[in-house]
Design a protein that fits this description.
Blueprint (H helix, E strand, L loop, with lengths): L1 H57 L4 H11 L6 E6 L6 E4 L11 E3 L25 E2 L6 E12 L7 E11 H7 L11 E5 L5 E3 L9 H8 L4 H13 L2 E6 L5 E8 L7 E7 L10 H70 L4 H26 L1 H6 L7 E4 H19 L2 E7 L5 E4 L1 H17 L6 E10 L5 E10 L6 H4 L22 H12 L3 E7 L3 E12 L13 E5 L3 H13 L3 E5 L2 H13 L6 E5 L7 H12 L5 E5 L7 H7 L3 E4 L4 H12 L19 E5 L3 H13 L3 E5 L2 H9 L8 E4 L8 H9 L5 H4 L2 E5 L4 H10 L3 E4 L4 H12 L4
Helix pairs in contact: 1-6, 6-7, 6-9, 9-10, 10-12, 14-15, 15-16, 19-20
């Protein structure tokens, strides 16, 4: 049955091919006929011009006499003759027809446009066709051709003086087109053009593009230099046809015939392939037979396919399970290595600068941010229910977009330094710092996209991050637009069709050494969909990629801080125009006055001018990286101008630790990380200028929970030491029970009020946390049944949390512990919320 279907299809294909070949041959024949008509017309017109020239040359004539003779010889009112002097270079003369709109003006000049034919190309032999290129008739403004001959005239003032001139028989192109008789009923969509030996159009159809046919062919069809030369040779030496694509990507047929009467000229006949007549095929009959045969074939094979599928199913399930485990563990390499790289690098920095508390403190802060992100990834890996279902859940909470941005900068620094990437981060019109969403998921989305951009950007390339706040269509929400643009390897259109599939990655020899399996984009897309956002990508292979993420996020119910800098008069120096615009907006939102300079030289001039008037700026903010003069040098020179009175702050998207020492030596008073958010700018200037009293101390005030007493059931010595020291730092007393049984015994022998709550590890010897909790709840009296018990364990699976709650616990904290979460739980006990 397959053989029969194949035979029918081959027969139809062969019949269609023969039909097209016949149609092409007939189209070529029609074009040859047009060439013969055209050649006869050209020869006839040239003969008329030759007769005029011979008569003029046989009798001494002035230009007026020659023009009068030719004018009397005219038959067609549409044609004209121009006699132009060539001996003195003026290219001026007389026309046999007056200029359009001036019935008594017969003067003609070719000085502006030049002669349409080269004098050295004129062939004075009988039978030669001396025809010009198409040009605009200076007398009428109509596109025309000219048949030419050299003539000799006598000077009007001295008949003994000979003058050289050229006689042009000027004919509108429309006259030539009228001579082209073509079977329009059969080829009504055909278009005819005429080209010269260089393939320039003499007469051009509407579907022919460019000013040259070969250039038209090259623009829409693949051809090399040798092919171009071969095409030119074919057009001028032989007749034939070929298929090509037009400007709309449609296949068309070009038939070509060189004009025998004028060497180098060629007629081109154009028609779309869809307009060619093809033999009619009874596709309904063929389709009916094919469908019947396919039905019989499918019916016969259906049972075998079903049976074979059943046999393969068991083997495929086992293979898929094993492959999924290996692929998943391998895929996590991409997401885990990014924060690990930051942790290792920052640890090295801290170790090498143990004598500098500021550097150590800054490194430890950044390690904490990267560790939190790494912990998020590990939680995702360990949450088996999420992996098996392919779904993620969101945990909305109030977070700061400033902290998210700081995390982006910190995570990116090691790779930015390693590859010397030009890194920019802009924040545009971000009015709401505190939003309500799943910060960990947003962190993961932003970092995945940025780390991909850094990874696939070659050394000395550039990566630009833009964070913009727009008005949302939903009340109470804002639209956050996160855009990352890089100059990396880019992606092909084929890859972009499936780039959000798991384990897919654009392959390129430049990045074969890059580790990771491409799971990041798949997870990113799933998270964005879950948050109701969108992700868009524009990329071109070899030119870079731009990802744009749009999320509508809820505005957090947090009282905004009253921030104003009305008394501040600032100067902002940066070569980045986008940063200057966004920073100006931020200053304006703080009611501060700000002037901007786009270079260090301009800034020094502005500072010097203000200083000479004893009207210094209140604060100066200088970008570190500028092309003409870097920020440190600008600070050094400003200090020489204004002394120590004016505070100067350096701003950069790069790590402050790299330039801190040299910046302080130059005279910088502080540092702000890009982008300039409203809150960070306010706090930095406020602290530097001592405009108001600091309020940050309240954030570290834990006096409300100091003095509380905790029983911690923990069998691991190191874990107990960490917990004990962290609680002691906040004034909380903790007592240890080495296992669950000891914890039960200690509570059984204690009095109400001896302990405020219990932190219970789950995996312990003798008696685990689940058993211990059940035993405590079973103790006599009201107090053991009501004391808050919080699980503190590395068992982070969803079912483990459920077991803890079923056993009678009040909460769950996953290890490694976050002291902020621990304090939150303790404060919840203090306030009676647990």
């Amino acid at each position: 049955m397959l053989g029969i279907i194949g035979f029918v299809l081959l027969h139809v294909q062969r019949a269609a091919s023969e039909s097209i070949n016949d149609e092409v041959a007939q189209f070529e024949t029609a074009t040859v006929t047009m060439e013969q008509v055209t050649a006869n017309y050209l020869e006839g017109e040239q003969n008329i011009c030759n007769v005029w020239a011979r008569y003029i040359n046989s009798e001494p004539m002035t230009i007026d006499e020659a023009a009068s003779f030719v004018r009397a010889s005219h038959v067609s009112t549409e044609n004209a003759a121009h006699i132009v002097f060539t001996d003195n270079g003026s290219l001026e003369g007389l026309s046999t027809r007056p200029k359009t709109g001036a019935e008594d003006d017969y003067a003609v000049s070719y000085k502006a446009i030049g002669l349409p034919i080269r004098l050295d190309k004129l062939d004075e032999q009988d039978g030669a066709i001396n025809v010009s290129r198409s040009y605009t008739n200076p007398m009428t403004g109509v596109q025309s051709l000219a048949f030419c001959n050299k003539i000799s005239l006598v000077d009007s003032s001295d008949r003994l003086k000979q003058r050289e001139a050229i006689l042009l028989r000027v004919i509108p192109l429309e006259k030539l087109q009228e001579k082209w008789v073509f079977p329009s009923d059969r080829y009504e969509d055909a278009e005819v053009s005429l080209v010269d030996s260089d393939s320039n159009y003499i007469i051009k159809g509407r579907n022919y593009k460019n000013s040259n046919f070969v250039e038209f062919y090259k623009s829409y069809n693949q051809i090399d230099a040798a092919g171009v030369e071969e095409l030119k040779e074919r057009l001028t030496t032989q007749s034939g046809s070929f298929f090509m694509d037009n400007s709309r990507g449609e296949e068309c047929l070009i038939a070509y015939v060189p004009i025998s009467a004028n060497k180098g000229w060629t007629i081109l006949n154009y028609i779309q392939s869809s307009s060619l007549n093809r033999s009619n095929v009874d596709w309904f009959l063929i389709g009916g037979v094919a469908c019947a045969l396919l039905f019989l074939l499918n019916f016969d094979m259906a049972f075998m396919n079903w049976f074979n599928a059943r046999l393969d199913e068991a083997a495929k399930e086992a293979e898929a399970a094993n492959r999924a485990k290996s692929d998943f563990l391998s895929a996590m390499s991409h997401d885990i290595r990014t924060p690990m790289n930051a942790i290792l690098g920052l640890t090295t920095i801290a170790q090498r600068n143990v004598d500098d508390p500021a550097i150590v403190k800054d490194s430890l802060h950044k390690i904490g941010l990267a560790s939190n992100h790494l912990l998020t990834l590990i939680n995702d890996i360990l949450d088996i229910s999420k992996v098996e279902s392919g779904k993620l859940t969101l945990t909305p909470a109030t977070f700061s977009i400033v902290e998210v941005t700081e995390n982006l900068v910190n995570i990116s620094q090691p790779m930015v330094k390693e590859k010397n990437i030009a890194f920019q981060l802009h924040a545009n019109a971000v009015e709401h710092e505190y939003l309500c969403a799943d910060q960990l998921r947003i962190n993961q989305v932003f970092i995945n996209i940025l780390s991909n951009a850094l990874k696939y950007t070659e050394p000395f390339g550039s990566v630009a991050v833009d964070l913009q706040e727009l008005e949302s269509e939903t009340p109470g929400m804002v639209r956050l637009v996160y855009r990352v643009a890089d100059t990396g390897m880019g992606m092909s259109e084929e890859f972009m069709e499936h780039m959000y599939e798991s384990f897919s990655r654009q392959t390129d020899s430049r990045v074969n050494k890059v580790q990771g399996t491409g799971l990041g984009l798949a997870i990113t897309k799933q998270m964005i969909d879950l948050m109701g956002g969108t992700i868009e990508c524009q990329s071109k292979l070899g030119e870079g990629t731009t990802f744009t993420v749009t999320l509508d996020l809820l505005i957090a119910e947090r009282e905004p801080e009253d921030m104003t800098l009305e008394s501040v008069d600032a100067l902002l120096v940066d070569d980045d125009e986008v940063f200057l615009q966004t920073a100006q907006y931020t200053f304006n939102s703080l009611d501060a006055r700000v002037e901007v300079a786009s270079s260090g030289v301009q800034a020094l001039e502005m500072v010097g001018a203000r200083h000479s008037l004893h009207d210094d700026y209140g604060v100066i903010i200088v970008d570190w990286k500028m092309p003409d003069m870097d920020g440190i040098e600008v600070v050094r020179r400003m200090r020489a101008l204004v002394g120590e009175q004016v505070p100067i702050i350096l701003v950069s998207a790069y790590d402050w630790s790299d330039i801190e020492e040299s910046a302080k030596e130059a005279g910088a008073d502080g540092f702000i990380s890009k982008p300039l958010f409203k809150s960070t700018l306010y706090r930095a200037i406020n602290e530097l200028l001592n405009l108001t009293e600091a309020t940050d101390a309240n954030e570290d005030d834990h006096s409300d929970i100091a003095g509380m007493r905790v029983l911690a059931a923990e069998d691991n010595d190191i874990n107990w030491e960490i917990l004990n020291m962290l609680l002691d730092m906040h004034g909380i007393e903790s007592v240890r029970a080495e296992n669950g049984q000891i914890a039960v015994d200690m509570l059984a022998s204690s009095q109400p009020g001896d302990y405020d709550l219990v932190f219970m590890d789950v995996q312990m010897p003798i008696m685990n946390g689940i058993e211990a909790t059940k035993a405590i709840r079973a103790l006599p009296g009201e107090w053991p049944s009501t004391i808050p018990i919080i699980a503190m364990t590395a068992d982070a699976f969803s079912e483990d949390v459920a077991k803890c709650m079923d056993a009678g616990m009040n909460g769950h904290i996953a290890k490694p512990i976050d002291i902020k979460i621990v304090l939150k739980e303790i404060r919840g006990v203090k306030e009676g919320k647990l």
